[in-house]
Amino acid sequence: MVGTKIDGVLVASSVKERVRNAVSELKSRGVEPCLATILVGDNQASATYVKNKHKACADVGILTKDHKLPATTSQEEMNELLSTLNSDESIHGILVQLPLPKQLGEFETTSRISPIKDVDGLTPYNVGLLSLGKAILKACTPSGIIELFDYYKIDLEGKNVAVINRSNLLGKPLYHLLLQRNATVTTCHSKTKNLQKICHDSDIIITGVGDRTRFTLTPEMIHDGAIVIDVATTRHDEKLVGDCDFDKIIQKASFASPVPGGVGPMTIAMLLKNTVTAASLSESIVRR
Ligand code: GUN
Which domains does the chain possess? Predict the structure, then answer.
């Protein structure tokens, strides 16, 4: 039995349509949603991601402010820019594209973003709210994955879910979102023992390793009818690939997301959604 392809482009376009309407409503009330991005250095992949985020913003009517900083930017210079953007009332969302050059601390940098402008959900305040089940601004890729499950009516209650990633952007926030849906979550990483068995025993496998030389999720590793969400995007032989071969895994899975066209478009759609949410938050604070 061939499974169903989880179409991230389709689901992202429905999220974007809702965002477009919310942007119009905000504009009619005099609020022009605006996202500021900060890109440090000349990492080509990061530059492409940021360019795509700007394009998507323009597509739904969100303004953008583009800050490109040299690779030699000091922590002090970064902190100064963040402080300026935090106090600029015309900016509603702030995104610092990761990874950062070595001299810039990821925590030192992201924790300085004002929590109400934290469209990546990376500040300690928003991470804390997420763990308490009270977050408003949540990490984009994990919330995009939940949106995919909802669209395809995939019930998470009581499901065994293996997440192969433990990063602040993916594995950790996803753990909380899945737990809130009453899934039983196993967070796996490079030191996990018996990964093959964990995958085989799981109803849902969400994989985000991104290095085919270290890991490939093969059909032999999943059980018949399992659900596979592939979050990895890496360049391999001039092609974008995930952690598994979609054409092979879909022969055994009941649902699987392809790369490209799966989770990637959802990350951007949820960033747009968070920006509109941040603009609404700022408005309610200004009005109070
Ligand atoms: N680098 C890779 N993915 C992301 C993301 O979702 N947000 C940020 N800020 N940087 C990233």
Answer: 30-115 (3.40.50.10860), 140-264 (3.40.50.720)
Q: Which two structure tokens, joined as six digits, stand for 169?
A: 């952007």
Q: What is the dihedral of CA 234, 235, 240, 241, to 10 degrees?
A: -50
Judge if the beta carbon of residue 98 lies within 6 A of ligand 1. Answer: yes
Distance 231 CA to ligand 1 centre (A): 12
From the CA of 98, give the closest atom in ligand 1. Answer: 10
**Ligand 1 centroid to 95 CA: how many Å?**
8
The verdict on whether 97 is a catalytic residue reads: yes
Inter-CA distances, 270 with 66, 104, 170, 208, 283, Å? 19, 26, 13, 18, 20
Q: What percent of the chain has pLDDT over 70?
A: 99
Active site residue 75: no
| pLDDT tens-place string over residues 171-181 | 999 999 999 99
